[in-house]
Amino acid sequence: MATAWLKPALAATVAIAAAADLTFCIEDLNKAYRQSHPDTELKLSTGSSGNFYTQIEHGAPYDVFLSADISFPQKLIDEGFADRSTLSVYSIGRLALWTTKPDLVALDKGINVLRDPVVKRIAIANPQFAPYGRAAKAALETAGLWNEIQSRVVTGENIAQTAQFVQSGNADAGFVALSLLYTPTLRNVGRYIQVDPKLYPPLQQAMVLTKAGAGNSAAHDYLQFLASQDARKIFDSYGFEAPADPAK
Fold first, then answer.
1. Rounded Cα–Cα distance for residues 47 and 117 (Å)
2. Is the per-residue pLDDT at 247 higher than 80?
3. Is there a contact between 30 and 64 (Cβ–Cβ < 8 Å)?
4. 34 and 28 in contact (C-beta within 8 Å)?
5. CA proximity to 56, closest of 207, 201, 218
6. Same fold flag, 12-92+202-237 and 94-199
7. Is 133 helix (H, G, I), strand (E, B) or coil?
8. Is the pLDDT of residue 190 over 90?
9. Which residues on adjacent β-strands are paired with residue 14?
10. Residue 91 forms beta bridges with which residues?
11. How many angstroms separate the CA atoms of 23 and 14, rounded?
12. Whole-number pLDDT of residue 244
């Protein structure tokens, strides 16, 4: 009777819920983590921070939550679904206005170009669930543009889908995470400008262990890696700004 070769069981599993602006960055982070933890299985899901908040609140078995906005992890902590001692800001996100139609959308005018009726469809992430969508709406309101262009706004479920609207040409311009425009796929596609950060509240991107993850030693190890200098270099390479040192 032939003996079947059995694949060794992995030592541990970490289930990760990551904001959509990390779609590409998190792959590089996980690749680096696996180099020193080859026996740990990383189960990754990406999507809108608000949707993950709701899923975790209803018992979704994620160990680590990386949110594009600190408010969602804080809510989970307040409700008893996450471990307060593990909460930390890992980066400051940056908002960009991007187009794949630079001949149509004159970005040298800044976000005021959106007043031009030739810009018929403007993509933002859903402000109800996506922090970058909230930031985009806030920037438009601060600039006095929201009421004027609201009828031309199309919303994506998350920031990755919003970027797809722009990349495909289904939107003439859109507000996306700067990190997505640092990826090899999109780096040289179209044109973008960074939105003045004074126009929207800071995108404090925070990570936390969920109630389930608090008892998972591998999840603790993974969170420690994300706070390391090796991880910081990867975050930097995608345009994420390091949070201010509270000691300074």
1. 31
2. no
3. no
4. no
5. 207
6. yes
7. helix
8. yes
9. 42
10. 205
11. 17
12. 75
CA angle 118, 159, 92 (to 5 degrees): 110
Question: What are 137-172's pLDDT values in tens digits?
Answer: 999 999 999 999 999 999 999 999 999 999 999 999
| pLDDT value of position 245 | 61
Quote the CA–CA distance of 125 and 117 in Å, as a whole number.
Answer: 21
- Integer Rg of the chain from CA: 19
Contact 83, 76 (CB under 8 A): no
Rounded distance, CA 235 to CA 129, Å?
23
pLDDT at position 2: 45
- Which residue, among 33, 21, 19, has the nearest Cα to 226 in the 3D structure? 33
Distance from C-alpha of 246 to C-alpha of 248, rounded to nearest angstrom: 5
Which structure tokens are listed for 191?
């044109």
Taking the C-alpha atoms of residue 20 and residue 161, their distance in angstroms, rounded to an integer, is 9
Mean pLDDT of the chain: 93
The mean per-residue pLDDT over the stretch 97-124 comes to 95
Give the model confidence (pLDDT) of 10-52 as tens digits: 579 999 999 999 999 999 999 999 999 999 999 999 999 999 9
Please tell me the distance from the alpha carbon of residue 104 to that of residue 191, in angstroms, as a whole number.
11
Structure tokens at 248: 């300074």
CATH number of the domain at 12-92+202-237, please?
Answer: 3.40.190.10
Fold topology of 94-199: D-Maltodextrin-Binding Protein; domain 2 (3.40.190)
- The Cα–Cα gap between 96 and 111 comes to 10
SS3 170: coil
